[in-house]
């Protein structure tokens, strides 16, 4: 099971997450308490492995600004977490994660409108788009056959429920931010536990 740790703001957390087994790190460039300046993100990303997914998170940003931040930071994946259209989402030269808010099974029909490389299924928006620590009813994903779509499960995941989320939704990847924080800051112990829980479930299934 692949794991994305979102809301990275310093090199120590980034390197610790990678050492624990993270496959992707997310850097938030939208309005958020986890927002990071592009120049600072670039300094961190230049110290990370080439093959790691370095994801930039945007909400209703212009293509011009996204392209500029891609150039500054060297992120290699764009996550669109707003109301971006299918046309806008397909206008980039690097892979795109289109985030969709899921409140009911009907919301999953939006998947067929986009041609993005990945889809992140998150809880309905709260104060911010994502990172609100609230989960949705994962069982509704059982009603949808995703075929070749790479689904990233997000929203309210933490070390205690990530195994349940994986068993219920069978995603391509799981994404976590607030669920591995203590008092608003990334908790390296929680990150390690989260990744271990996701990996251990996979190990159990292989046996």
Automatic annotation (TrEMBL):
> Which EC class, in a word?
isomerase
Entries under SUPFAM superfamilies matching the protein: Ribulose-phoshate binding barrel (SSF51366)
Q: Which reaction does it catalyse?
A: N-(5-phospho-beta-D-ribosyl)anthranilate = 1-(2-carboxyphenylamino)-1-deoxy-D-ribulose 5-phosphate
Q: Name one GO molecular function term.
A: phosphoribosylanthranilate isomerase activity
- The answer, when asked if Amino-acid biosynthesis is one of the entry's keywords, is yes
Entry EC no(s): 5.3.1.24
Q: In which pathway does it act?
A: Amino-acid biosynthesis; L-tryptophan biosynthesis; L-tryptophan from chorismate: step 3/5
Work out whether the entry's keyword set contains Isomerase. Answer: yes
Keyword entries, A-Z: Amino-acid biosynthesis, Aromatic amino acid biosynthesis, Isomerase, Tryptophan biosynthesis
> Record's superkingdom?
Bacteria
Q: Which Gene3D superfamilies match?
A: Aldolase class I (3.20.20.70)
Gene Ontology biological-process annotations: L-tryptophan biosynthetic process
Q: Which residues form the N-(5'phosphoribosyl) anthranilate isomerase (PRAI) domain?
A: 3-196
Q: Which family does it belong to?
A: Belongs to the TrpF family.
Please give the name of this protein. Answer: N-(5'-phosphoribosyl)anthranilate isomerase
